[in-house]
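for the writeup, i need someone to sanity check this before i put it in the appendix. the sequnce is what the collaborator sent (i think, or maybe the updated version? ugh). structure was predicted straight from it, no edits. if anything looks off just tell me and ill rerun, i have time this weekend
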Amino acid sequence: MSQPTITTNPSPFLINVPAFQNVQDNAAGEDAIGELSTRINQIGEMVDYDTKTIKANIFTSFDTGTITIESATVFTSGYAGTEISASGTTGGTGGTGGTGPTGPTGAGVDLTGLPSGTIVFTDSIGGPTGTSTFFVSSGTGEVVIDGKLTVTGLIDPTGLILTPQSQHPAPSDPNFATTLWWSTGTSALLVGSAPILTNTAEGADSIALGTNISNTVPNSLVLNASGIGISGVAAGLYIAPVRYLGGDGILMYNSTTREITWVDGISLVGPTGATGTDGVTGPTGSSGPTGSVGSTGATGSDGLTGPTGSTGPTGSVGSTGATGNTGATGNAGSTGPTGLQGATGATITYTANYAQSNDGSITINTTATFPATVTSVTITTNGNPVQLIASGDANPLSAGGWGRLQLYRGTTAIGKILQFESSGANENCPYCLNFIDNVAAGTYTYSVKANSLVVNTQFGESDGNIITALEIAGAQGPTGPTGPGAVLGSGRVNAGIAVQLDNLQVQMATSGSRSLQFRTVSGSYATRFTGYTTYFSGGNQFTYFSGVGLTLTTTYQYPVAWSFPAEGDTAIYHMHDTTNGRAYRITLIVGSGYNNNIISIERIYPLTL
């Protein structure tokens, strides 16, 4: 190793170095140059010119100033590689220092037989306390933890995939009741042993929450926490349980508690609006049928026979000649006088069958069982119709009261419903119910009943309510004497419907020539017809016929094939029954569309048969 030479111009790399440990200090009495030479030699021993390093055990203070290194120079101590860097311009990288001494041997951990990805847990002095598997799959990038993961803070996954289990994955874990897992046996999501979601939704766009849900259909929502099975049958909403508030039939929703409940007994009918103005009176109904004709009185005795004409003188008897022609028939004698009218038959008497109630005032509360009886009556009938008339007044005991009344036969409602209504309390509302009940013979109880009331109501406040049941028996009076004139059969009939008198039937033809057709009820007889008509066809028209012979049978025939074109056309036929010596006058007035035609048949001779 070459030694440096001190020149009058010191190297720019020269530094002030204080006394170093284990280096001999200045000898007493040595002059300045000798001392300087000694120190330079000492520095030379510390300098390794090949590695460009200075070696020393310790640095000590030389003065109060800082050590200045004019270029990038590294001082390396023998302990823990202590370095002091200059504050000047960074120089090139120095050489690698020597390897430090080996530290003491630790307690050590036995890793023999542990699989790849094993994490070893140690205590504060390096002793092992447990292991777990933790590795990242090279194929999928998934992190696998072989054991329970306890997280003391929140977790924020983008998704959670549960591996289905046939039974609770940790049955002995102290947190059994709060474990979230999916059961393959019930196809349900459970917390502990309680299912909170069942995967039984079989239809598109359907949701099933709860247990015991055996089937769903598309577009349905099934919520079941009742413990009883539910199976959806059509698209819709199925919920169980729903809390019952009494009764049956009405589903309600509370917008505050968001609860769905159901009740019954709520009337959905609001109060009746104000009464409108009276409509026009309808037409009067048709009259009831005429009672049957009473029995005919006894026939009077025959009148006296007229006198026989005088006998002509007898001619002399001559020789018998050829038989002569029969002489003409003599004139008929005049008709004898009409016999006296027979005595009038016995008068038929009739006693009315009726029953009437005599009930007093009654109050019906809203807590009553409806329909509730106001008044009733019982009648035993003979099979004729029963007319019912009930009247009284309803007095609501609170403001805004209203109700509905109806007639009943036993428990069967009959007739129309009557509604009463008042704006204030104690406003009397008169009522009247009327109905004709067509029943067989028997005993019946008729009543007025309240179908519904919104307030407690008094009926018949002053003198009660009344109901009358009257059997309509159709009583007959005595038959009056037969009046003079023709015997008549008539009707207002459609085409194809016959009007009959004696052995003669007449109808308006249903097709073809729209005029009258004639036939017998049975057998046949010879006739001769005459007739005339007025009709409208482009104006008023008139025509007639006379002397048309026709043998009537049970098949309809035309005496003449007229075809009437319009409503109101009129015809009159005269028919002579030459076989039986009878004469008839038949009148026709054509109805609209050949319906409601007026047809009459008069026997103008003889008046009696």
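The CA atoms of residues 396 and 457 lie 4 Å apart. Residues 1-24, 69-88 have pLDDT under 50 and may be disordered.
thx in advance!!
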